[in-house]
Amino acid sequence: MSALKPLPRWADIILLPLINLTLAFIVAGLVVxxxxxxxxxxxxxxITGAFGSGYNIGYTLYYSTNFIFTGLAVAVAAHAGLFNIGxxxxxxxxxxxxxxxxxxxxxxxxxxxFPVAILAGAAVGGFWGFVPGYLQAKRGxxxxxxxxxxxxxxxxxMIYVVVNLLKPPGILAPESASIAVxxxxxxxxxFIPWFKNTDVNFTLIxxxxxxxxxxxLIWHTRFGFAMRAxxxxxxxxxxxxxxxxxxxMIVMTMxxxxxxxxxxxxxxxxxYRLVLDYVADAGFxxxxxxxxxxxxxxxxxxxxxxxxxxxxxxxxxxxVIPGLSKEMVVVIQAxxxxxxxxxxxxxxxxxxxxxxxxxxxxxxxx
Length: 366
Fold this sequence. Notes:
Layout: H1 9-34, H2 39-51, H3 54-79, H4 87-104, H5 110-139, H6 143-166, H7 203-220, H8 222-232, H9 234-239, H10 244-271, H11 282-292, H12 297-320, H13 327-342, H14 348-355, H15 358-364
């Protein structure tokens, strides 16, 4: 019996996740049915809540923007054989760079501040990714452990800075000063009435640019080849004369910079000030997005839209069906992660046999 052929790229990125996603929703439907609710009504409420109007779509795209950034942050590192689990901390502490730039330039038009805020968020988030990369490359500290710990360090730093350094006198809430009205980036609803009163903003365009840029970086540049080679065989890259430590540090810096774009979306595009816990665990959702999207930009886009729809649809679900709380969406998300992540290979052998010409072909070596 010959070995089964690998799945075609499109089947690996789209078909297999779609099958796993369908199974996840079937199991979720059984859970909803078991607690005495109509699973079809719940599914309709989620879909309507996510896509039923321009308002709902706007918020779905707003959530998806954050997940695109954090999904790309995980995927870029994964191609180099690194598991960046610190996207939450990198996105969080990047808010310091964004708010300092935004407040310093708040008297200027937003379109002048926007690119500088992007650079500031990328610099701070990139630095927070570079340090774990340096520690692994030069000191042998595993990047999973260091990025986890850096999440906690970032949280502690942010609490101290916001409460003790950035909070204006006389303000009780733990938050920085607000950006002046004339320096705020407008929402897309200002130009597209369909998105009126939603938080989706020009950072969505930045997210799409990052998706395209990541694709060309990974598959159409010399450095992209080097990082993929490192992820596949670090011994071979070392013998080929590549610097594994250099690639590791650069990749982790880029990964942190991508996660830092969440701060641009949240701080400069939505909150207009720095508040505590504004990331709302988008960094951890990005891990699921990257897993489900097979670390491919197209897959990440589709997975981010799915999780954005689940977040927005879940917000509406609890109002449409009182018997189901928002926590039910957490269960659905967990099932999606289970079947598209931990159990993603469940149907892979069957699909490989199908694309290899069926069981008979596999037995005969065809």
